[in-house]
Specification:
The protein is an alpha/beta fold and 199 residues long. The chain has one domain: Rossmann fold (3-Layer(aba) Sandwich). The chain contains 6 helices and 7 strands, in the order ααβαβαββαβαββ. Strands 3-2-1-4-5-7-6 form a 7-stranded mixed sheet, with helices on both faces. Helix 5 links the parallel strand 4 and strand 5. Helix 2 crosses helix 3.
Length: 199
Amino acid sequence: MSKIVLENLIDKQLKIQTTGRDDSKEDTYHHPYEPTPYSVLERLAESGYIIKENILVDYGCGKGRVGFYLSAKVGCKTIGIDFDERMIKRALENSKSFVGKLKPEFQCISAENYEVGNADCFYFFNPFPIEILCSVLGKILDSYYKNPRSMVLFFYYPDEEYVAYLMTKDELMFVDEIECMDLFEGKNERERILIFEIM
């Protein structure tokens, strides 16, 4: 089965529409919308790092694919945030038709202004540059210091700048990676999910 067919098939099963890239709002501080492939999300869901009791925040959620898939597959609460009103509108439209029992929550807000609350899992697919990531991690750490708990961060398809920054951040501990290179043609080493915990 081709990747395009698989993407459309799972969207159809979940009764959502999340396929397609959108770079109309791309600029220095915001990367284009591109959904995480379902094959990658399946690996994440089966990794055991996310369970029903978790609350996961998807930064730069776009049309909401990560939240819909993980809430359906794992049963965890998910919160998608995005600065783009059009994307949040599409995510909310998807929520109306979504077949899962637990519907994701969506908020139109810039990542650096989002208050983490009780969330304990965080998903990033290169939604923004390092400058914004620094602010976002600051918010996550503030939440940890107010309410210490196990917190896990997932970084899919990280670039070298992200990796270098994350590996030198004292409060973060690299714990694992989920290899995804075999899911795609070629040998792209960025096809992986790096997993970090707050120390």
